[in-house]
Design goal:
- With 540 residues, the chain is mostly beta strands.
- It has 5 helices and 38 strands.
- The strands form 10 sheets. It has a 5-stranded mixed β-sheet with strand order 3-38-37-36-31, with no helix packed on it. Strands 12, 13, 14, 15 and 16 form a 5-stranded antiparallel β-sheet that branches.
- A hairpin with a 6-residue loop joins strand 5 (120-126) and strand 6.
- The chain is globular and about 60 Å long.
Length: 540
């Protein structure tokens, strides 16, 4: 395990050996530090064995929840056991423009909260109807406010409001989007008081300061920010006007010292028709952090590619044009309303959700496309990919599974019945085997084999499951062998993978149409879910 990531669960207690090894707790003595090193090694082996049995290499399971879908591979695997869903600890608004008595749908993707090792919760908040934003730092145990910081971030052109999402590096530096494609950062997110902030621009802060208005009006971050294990960050940006240095829409990298580089989406795909990074597509990193994956497109509803870049230089070295599963001569659709982001499997395989083309032949469910890490081999697809980022489920969590795969995938599995698109309204979540197949009953396509599915138990709709599972990423808890996901019916559910039952239910709201949002688990096991523009914090 890398130094900054050497935090392991010992029963219910988290022991951070890194600080002792680094000498920040010298009073423990040499013996404690030797024991701590041993504990780190044993813990790494034990947790790696628990999460990813067999020969699959262990992924990062960093404490805390520091990126969209937990980590740079977007595994959404919690490193601690979640608490029982018994009580509301606290709640806070993530959108000040939504009235408390709202009963309408929210066509927006709220950014994922982040959680530090000290159990500070970093909450992205939308402050106005047209898109003002700020970051709030809150005490995880009580919800008390440590500090708030506004940003001059401006939304890119959109239909559904895109995500405003930051990241925490292993050294606990917080980054979040600013205006003109810049990012703000602070090195003391846990402080009880206002910390100092810095600003970086991937094209140079000197350039930004020399002509600030030109960049503010033309350059917009349009994806969540992802951090690697070394503290380098990555994100997509959109350019809609001219800039003094001729920026084009593309992918940016900024290192810890503020040095930036970028590559255009056009060059990443080697296709002049490609003009943007896919909206809301959080960049993902290979398990060794050497390869960066992101999707690029020809526009808000265009075609696209999944591209692989050298994470150190952003040099493109592979790409694959994204095709429809049922009609492989057709390009899959890349909707800017989606939050689909790549998921990296423990074996290095890459998963990414797209929309079918022509529309609705798969009941508007899309496809979960599946490739090897080199993007040179197309593998078994999943039958659902719309607005979803697959979560990794270690095969050992599903006692009924007797296949050979070391890991499975958890995905949304809605079968939409609205707008006459052909579904039956039996909206499910599913655990799939990415290495084995079945025939999809909707389309007849060969897709990933269903291992477990469960329908939403909607009680206030004409038939069970009509309300959707409103998630773009669900949290996987290997300690309780369960998945945490929230639903448009206003409830947060625990899906027990041993009994295949919704073993716990916690009512958040009365239930409305709700934008897709992430679910996550804090360092103390509390569960975080967003419904009706409110972040709810649930536990025992």
């Amino acid at each position: 395990m890398d130094g900054p990531d050497s935090v392991c669960p010992v029963g219910p207690v988290l022991v951070d050996c890194t600080t002792r090894i680094a000498g920040e707790n010298m009073g423990q003595g040499m013996l404690d530090r030797v024991v701590c090193r041993l504990r780190v090694a044993l813990c790494a082996a034990a947790v790696g064995s628990l999460l990813l049995p067999g020969r699959a290499p262990a992924q990062s399971i960093r404490v805390p929840w520091s990126d969209y879908a937990h980590d740079p591979q977007h595994s959404a695997i919690s490193p601690v056991a979640s608490q029982p869903l018994l009580h509301l600890h606290w709640q806070t608004s993530v959108d000040l423009s939504v009235p408390t008595n709202n009963t309408g749908e929210l066509f927006i993707h709220y950014g994922s909260p982040l959680i530090t090792r000290s159990n500070t919760v970093i909450v992205p908040v939308k402050t106005t109807g047209v898109g003002g934003f700020r970051i709030e730092s809150r005490v995880g145990s009580t919800g008390a406010t440590n500090w708030m910081q506004s940003t001059d971030y401006i939304l890119p052109s959109h239909n559904w409001t895109p995500s405003f999402s930051g990241t925490l590096t292993p050294k606990n530096r917080l980054y979040f989007p600013g205006g003109g494609g810049t990012v703000y950062y602070c090195d003391a997110p846990d402080t009880n008081g206002h910390p100092a902030f810095g600003q970086n621009a991937f094209y140079g802060l000197t350039n930004y300061n020399a002509n600030t208005n030109a960049y503010l009006g033309s350059v917009f971050i349009d994806t969540p920010i992802t951090s690697d294990r070394y503290g380098n960050i990555f994100f997509g940006f959109q350019v809609t006007g001219s800039t003094p240095i001729g920026l084009q829409s593309g992918i940016a990298r900024i290192d810890y010292n503020g040095t930036g580089t970028w590559v255009s989406a056009t060059n990443a795909a080697s296709d002049a028709g490609i003009s943007a990074v896919a909206m809301n597509c959080a960049p993902a990193l290979s398990n060794d952090h050497k390869t960066l994956y992101v999707a690029v497109s020809s526009g808000y509803y265009g075609y696209g590619y999944l591209v692989a870049l050298d994470s150190r230089t952003l040099t493109p070295f592979a790409s694959v044009r994204l095709k429809d599963v049922l009609t492989p001569t057709s390009d899959a659709s890349m909707y800017g309303d989606s939050t689909a982001s790549p998921t990296i499997g423990p074996d290095g395989d890459v998963y990414f959700g797209v929309v079918e083309n022509p529309c609705c032949v798969n009941h508007d469910r899309g496809w979960l496309l599946h490739f090897d890490g080199a993007l040179s081999q197309t593998k078994i697809p999943g039958a659902f990919g719309w607005d979803d980022t697959a979560s990794i489920v270690p095969a050992s969590l599903v006692s009924s599974y007797h296949g050979s795969s070391s890991y499975l995938l958890m995905t949304k599995y809605n079968n939409y019945s609205d707008d006459g698109i052909g579904g039956n309204g039996s909206n499910k979540i599913a655990v799939l085997d990415p290495m084995n197949t079945e025939v999809d009953p909707v389309t007849g396509a060969t897709v990933m084999k269903e291992i477990l599915t469960i329908v939403g138990p909607t009680s206030n709709a004409p038939q069970p499951g009509v309300r959707e599972w409103c998630i773009n990423s669900a949290a996987v808890d290997p300690f309780t062998k369960s998945v945490l996901a929230n639903n448009e019916d206003g409830k947060l559910y625990r899906w027990d993978l041993t009994s295949n039952t919704l073993s716990e239910t916690f009512t958040l709201t009365t239930g409305i149409g709700e934008a897709y949002t992430p679910t996550l688990i804090g360092v103390d096991g509390t569960v975080y879910a967003i419904n009706n523009a409110i972040l709810f914090v649930i536990g025992q």
